[in-house]
Design brief:
By secondary structure, the protein is α+β, with helices and mostly antiparallel strands. Helix content is 26%, strand content 29%.
Length: 494
């Protein structure tokens, strides 16, 4: 039996596991990424990267690779209501979603992981987990050869049926499937005239999205077939007949590349951390795939966990920092489940007259800018804010609570030493960033020094261009490696 020791083991090489592995290797942490499949999956469950996830990639200098492979879409949807979500009012460099197949996302992430030196092992099936007080072991098979890996922590990014979660004994609470819908990637002989087609009627709901060439994704909820079990295979004939019922035509669909049935099953792990075992992505939360949120929330889970786990592994932070991962991301997962359950009610139970009337009323309400903005922030992830600082300020400094947990956009900075640079360019190392606001140097002299390992903090003296009013009264901002403000301190008085 092959026995290997490393710092962190990640199970599952989808977008979540790959993102996490990249974050860990960026910090110099040893990581082994295990994947049971021999090759990446060619089907693309997710087709959308939200703006907040692009911001996350931009913070590591990787956004341009993804932008070059996708198409920007300035709006989104909530339950396929007629009124679209408007991202243009959000303070971000990326006020849109990026239409990009999950297969392309995984290819780009894997290329980045290999550049960083991640040890990716395919054909590796984990069968058992053994945990002790100071380490955890994974036992399994790689191409019929037994292996045992030992490390300090293991992260399950292994999907809805997560073996890691099951082995850890973490409950997966929620609601079973009550309704199903169908999905098919097919070729069209007579495609629709509009780029994206969305229809909701008494017969059901339909969305058609072009994937390139003459291949289209068809998502159909047939009011007469919402009770078909998820395990029942979808046939081309079934998809075609249901599309005809809802849209009045089947667009000459043929040559299916992928057919699947999905449900509104909704579950949330009771905890994201149990001792040395942690969960991320679908291993921690599953829901109706509404609004393209699942992969994005999972990648943001990985971003939140990655720098914390690296800090602990590198001896720069106490193990208690990992508790904040569950505290911060479990609440995000719970909000995600609520959001998608609400969309499920509108997408799968609204085909009678009262349901269609409700959809029309909500669509009208979404024309109210404040309501539209609230939903846009919710679905995109831009609205996430964390409630408490992770680092204590030294005595004598006054914290400004209004800034704690606030997400920062990519400010253009005027540097004290001359020249300009973007805020995100200083987050590429995955370190904390101490932004000393040099135009606010009043009162006592001296720099603010946070209570962190000095090798884990980069300091920049600068002021945001055209945002002086925004930072008025602030001496310094301590910015987390994921771009959220940990805390801000006010000027000291003379």
């Amino acid at each position: 039996m092959q026995n290997t020791c490393t710092d962190i083991m990640v199970v599952g090489a989808g977008p979540v596991g790959l993102t996490l592995a990249c974050e860990l290797r960026l910090a110099g942490v040893g990581v082994i990424l295990l994947e049971r499949r021999a090759k990446p999956v060619q089907q693309s469950r997710a087709l959308t990267i939200h703006g907040r996830t692009i911001e996350m990639l931009a913070q590591r200098g990787m956004a341009d690779r993804f932008l070059a492979c996708g198409m920007k879409i300035p709006t989104g949807h909530f339950a396929s209501l007629d009124t679209r979500l408007d991202f243009s009012a959000i303070d971000t460099t990326f006020p849109y979603t990026l239409f990009i197949p999950q297969s392309a996302t995984e290819q780009l992430l894997e290329a980045w992981a290999l550049e960083l030196g991640v040890d990716i092992r395919r054909n590796s099936t984990v069968e058992r987990i053994v945990e002790t007080s100071d380490c955890v072991s994974l036992i399994g098979q790689q191409e019929s050869n037994a292996f045992e890996l030992t490390g300090r922590y293991v992260v399950g990014a292994d999907g809805a049926r997560s073996l890691v979660r099951q082995q850890a004994g973490i409950a997966f609470k929620g609601l079973p499937a009550t309704k199903t819908a169908m999905l098919g990637d097919v070729r069209f002989g007579a495609p629709p005239t509009t780029p994206v087609l969305s229809i909701v009627s008494a017969a059901g709901g339909l969305m058609v999205v072009p994937l390139g060439g003459d291949v289209y994704r068809v998502i159909v909820t047939d009011a007469d077939r919402v009770d078909v079990p998820t395990a029942t295979p979808v046939t081309l004939e079934e998809l075609s007949v249901s599309t005809q019922r809802v849209a009045g035509q089947n667009f000459g669909m043929h040559a299916p590349q992928w057919l699947s049935r999905f449900s509104n099953e909704t579950r949330l792990a009771e905890t994201y951390r149990k001792d040395r075992i942690l969960l991320a992505g679908d291993a921690a939360h599953i829901h109706l795939p509404a609004g393209g949120q699942g992969m994005n929330v999972g990648m943001q889970d990985a971003m939140n966990l990655g720098w914390k786990l690296a800090g602990v592994a590198n001896g720069r932070a106490p193990e208690s920092l990992l508790d904040s991962y569950d505290q911060e991301r479990h609440s995000v997962g719970a909000a995600l489940c609520q959001n998608t359950l609400a969309q499920s009610a509108l997408l799968m139970n609204s085909f009678d007259a009262p349901g269609l009337a409700l959809r029309e009323a909500l669509s009208k309400l979404m024309k109210i800018p404040a309501l539209n903005a609230e939903l846009a922030l919710d679905v995109s992830g831009f609205g996430i804010r964390y409630s408490a600082p992770l680092v204590n300020a030294p005595s004598g400094w006054t914290l400004l609570p209004a800034w704690t947990g606030q997400r920062l956009s990519d400010w253009l900075l005027q540097l004290n030493k001359g020249g300009q640079a973007s805020l995100f360019s200083f987050l590429r190392t995955g370190h904390w960033l101490l932004l000393q606001l040099t135009n606010c140097e009043k009162g006592k002299a001296g720099n603010y020094t946070p209570l962190l390992d000095e090798h884990w903090v980069d300091t920049v003296k600068a002021v945001p261009v055209d945002r002086q009013a925004t930072v008025a009264g602030i001496h310094a901002l301590l910015i987390r490696p994921d771009g959220y403000v940990d805390h801000a301190v006010a000027h000291q008085e003379t």
